[in-house]
Amino acid sequence: MPLLVSNYSWQQTKASVFLSLPLRGVCVRDADVFCAENYLKVNFPPFLFEVFLYAPIDEASSKAKIGNDTIIFTLCKKEAVMWETLCISGVDKEMMQRIREQSILQVQERAKEAAEAKATAKREDQKYALSVMMKIEEEERKKIEDMKENERRKATKELEAWKESQKKAEEQKRIQREETFRQQQKQTKEERKKLKPKSLTRSSISRHPATKGRNSENIFSEVFKEDCVPAPRSVGSIQVSFTPRVFPTALRESHAAEEEEWLHKQAEARRAMNIDIPEFSDLKEEEKNPDWLKEKGNKLFATENYLAAINAYNLAIRLNSKIPLLYLNRAACHLKVRNLHKAIEDSSKALELLTPPVKDNANARMKAHVRRGTAFCQLELYVEGLQDYEAALKIDPTNKVVQNDAEKIRNVIQGTELKS
Questions:
Q1: Do 398 and 308 sit in the same domain of this protein?
Q2: In a domain, 307, yes or no
Q3: Which residues of 155-171 are buried (b: 16+ CB within 10 A; e: fewer)?
Q4: Is 41:50 a contact under the CB 8 Å cutoff?
């Protein structure tokens, strides 16, 4: 049976009511305080205090302070008037129960409204965060598209410049051939003119009357010998040997201009390996060789020491930045350690160096597309990843692994498969 507390004191102003409730040993942890518009209850076993207020109060603005064996309430009135008493008079048990139930329902409704408002605010925050993330992803996607477009424009501009230089070179060669041909014709005419015999005049014949017989025949025979065509040259054979083609395809089926450009780039990369760089003068002789560093990086990658492999490829690239396989291998290392943006950059750089596209670099181009597509998918940019996988399939349409991965990405985009 609870002990009802009646020795309380209260004071009021037009705006507030101050209620002091003494409770021995009361503490915040064990005291149960319930405050409604017309009802106030404190349960601190074995003590119980409840009061049915004279007029409604604003329970949201009201406060309770617990300490020193006392609870002090500051109740804010809804109407600025003076109360005659603290509690309403003439209240029977049925009315008390009805007031209690109404108070509980009011508190529950307010709690429900507060929870709904909190949930709505949370949804708004999530929606805002999602919109911000989508905006960031859109900016990243636009940035990557701009990079791609710039690379395409750069490659097209370089190709047009190369074609123009080839055209000028061909035109210059043609002019030189025509000039050489005209000079040869002119020289031939001059030689024939020098070899042409002097014509016999009537006066010269008259001065030699004896030419009517045998002597005249000798004169014309000499003239005939001078004008006669030289004898044909002797028959012989000329041995001709051709340098074998680097690419196995026949010339009529190949892209000769692209192949020549690729060979020229490879030759430039090999020449760059022999250049001494002062800042690397303290390295060993083999450490100055990008090929040796590439093999070292490959061995470290095989032992799953990816960071050391990245360092080896970094040094090799500083020695020679024209070797596409260095960027391609470093992109694989970045994928392993989830440096996804760097993997995309290295794959793009490898594709830039693997131009023009020829059969000799087809396998490397396919790997670059697959690795960049994998990085895009791990960033959840599945549309860009699918584009790279489709580009890899154009290079090698029979690769089953790439076909299966491309199909999985399509299913993820369509929502028929979980992201992995």
A1: yes
A2: yes
A3: eeeeeeebeeeeeeeee
A4: yes
